């Protein structure tokens, strides 16, 4: 399984939790060690977005895919 497939699998795992809070996440691309995503719904406007990305999602992704250096939210 390549890195993008692993990323998409992890996103599918966390999506239901974001959906419960009225949000969603979409994979955009993986390039040069960075994961690019789009956050939708409540997640897009959340004041804790940076914390969610850097303290919640990033460690989870890095645990499964150590090559990931960071997560970048692409504005809608």
Secondary-structure content class? alpha+beta
Q: Looking at the chains present, what oligomeric state does this protein adopt?
A: single chain
Biggest pleated-sheet summary:
3 strands, mixed
Run of helices and strands = HEEHHE
Mean pLDDT: 91
* Rg over C-alpha atoms, rounded to the nearest angstrom: 11 Å
Question: Judging from the principal axes of the Cα atoms, what is the shape?
Answer: globular
Q: What is the percent of helical residues? A: 40-55%
Task: Please render the helix and strand layout as text.
Elements (H helix, E strand, L loop, with lengths): L2 H18 L2 E9 L2 E8 H4 L3 H16 L5 E4 L3
Parallel strand pairs: 2-3
Antiparallel strand pairs: 1-2
Structure description:
The structure is a single chain. By secondary structure, the chain is α+β, with helices and mostly antiparallel strands. The chain has one domain (3-73): Fe-S cluster assembly (FSCA) (GMP Synthetase, Chain A, domain 3). The protein has 3 helices and 3 strands. The protein has helices spanning 3-20, 42-45, 49-64; strands at 23-31, 34-41, 70-73. The chain has a 3-stranded mixed beta sheet. β1 and β2 (34-41) form a beta hairpin. The chain starts with a helix and ends with a strand.
């Amino acid at each position: 399984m390549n890195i993008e497939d692993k990323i998409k699998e992890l996103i599918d795992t966390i999506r239901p939790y974001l959906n419960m809070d009225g949000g969603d996440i979409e994979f955009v691309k993986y390039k040069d060690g960075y994961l690019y995503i789009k956050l939708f719904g409540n997640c897009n406007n959340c004041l804790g977005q940076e914390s969610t990305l850097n303290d919640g999602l990033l460690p989870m992704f890095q645990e499964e895919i150590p090559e990931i250096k960071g997560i970048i939210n692409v504005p809608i």
